[in-house]
Known about the structure:
Elements: H1 2-10, H2 12-23, H3 35-48, E1 52-56, E2 65-70, E3 79-85, E4 106-107, E5 110-112, H4 120-137, E6 143-149, H5 159-165, H6 167-170, E7 174-176, E8 181-182, E9 189-191, E10 193-205, E11 211-212, H7 222-231, H8 254-262, H9 267-274, H10 285-294, E12 297-305, E13 315-316, E14 319-328, H11 334-347, E15 354-361, E16 364-365, H12 371-384, E17 388-390, E18 393-396, H13 399-406, E19 410-411, E20 416-417, E21 428-430, H14 431-450
Parallel strand pairs: 3-6, 3-7, 7-19, 8-20, 9-17, 10-18
Antiparallel strand pairs: 1-2, 2-6, 4-5, 5-21, 10-14, 10-15, 10-16, 11-13, 12-14
Helix pairs in contact: 1-4, 1-14, 2-4, 4-14, 5-13, 12-14
Amino acid sequence: MKKILKHVDSNMNNLVSELQTLIRQPSISAKNEGLEKCAQLVKKTLQKAGIRSQILRLGKNIPPLVYGELRSKKNPKKTLLFYNHYDVQPVEPLDLWESPPFSAKVKGNKVFGRGSADDKGELITRIKAVESYLKIKGDVPCNIKFVIEGEEEVGSPHIEKYLKKFKKKFLCQGIIWEFGHVDSKNRPIVGLGMKGLLFVELISKESIRDAHSSLAVLIKNPAWRLIEAVKSLRDSNGRILIKDWYKEVRPLTKTDLKIIKAEPFDDAAFKKEFGIKSFVGHKKGFEAKKALVSGATCNVAGFVSGYVEKGVKTVLPAKALVKIDFRLVPDMDPTQQAQRLKKHLKKKGFGDLKVKIHHGVAAARISSSNPFVSQVKNAADESYGQSILNVSNAGTGPMHSFVKILGAPCISIGSTYMFSRIHSPNEFARIDLLKKATKCICLIMDKFGKN
């Protein structure tokens, strides 16, 4: 193992160079920009590392999935799967980037660019870990599989179809998720789950065209109607007011609560990073940590109506639209929650609003007693010096689909610094954390193969 880890050290320039190549290929799923080219590039990157790869497809207008596989000579009965994605978020607003978003500029210990952390940086650590094993040992300690999709940033609408169609190809005994956070003190977070998501649009339309605002004494403003509707959804402390919204929520166990209590969380550093003075509901300490793990949310992601450009325009808009994302926790069902939302709006007198459901994803969470957890945590401890267990990540991904269809435990661990500006201008990956994450993946492969 020492020789393998030394190879990681000596190969970092190559890792950074290949990450830069991936970043320089735009792959924005929201705009269908560069996805085919990036999928082909990822396939070549896998092949270059010695991993057999192929492009899997569902249809002409669906982004391809890149699949990689490497069979172990010594241990062909155990399989570890890495899930990642090659698509990235849009880059706007462009004027806030200090260097072009796809330039992959290296400055000191950081690689800047869209996708540098989320998720091309994480992907390259897994590829390079496998490559290091092959270079030194000529084999891997267990079968390795890669599932790399191109729609994660738009809600993974087709990943479940891919999983069902290619289930036999993807079968495994353990899954390493697409990312893992590293906290402000450089400690990796070993995540045992993710929240779910329900993303909706509410649309209010009053008149056939925009009007002069002086007519507001006669014509109803759809923006006010949406404001009133949105206000009915939650209270000032963030509690959702929709009937039976929390009915099926799985309670935290005593072990979960102990893990949450032990997990460090720097209130002051978090507030400073985002320039805020207090948390929702004035939460502090344990309550803040508990909310990140198990709190359901109702968030206004965007509100559009009327004139929003520079200067003044006295207009009464004909239409208003609000985008809302609800974070879900186990065992909330997205379809059922969507129906509850519609019933709530109708009961409150907003049945005329158009409700558009974009997508829904259920939450996932595995028990801390699963043997896979100790294997991953021990590897993280060896690589980083200390790791922290996390009952559930506050974010969302299609983890539930993987656990449900493949029947394997899923854990998140990786290299993404918690303040690396993912989804924002000037996204970056820290080179020192990329190195530690690559070593961590090597150690996970070793421990998983032995147990």
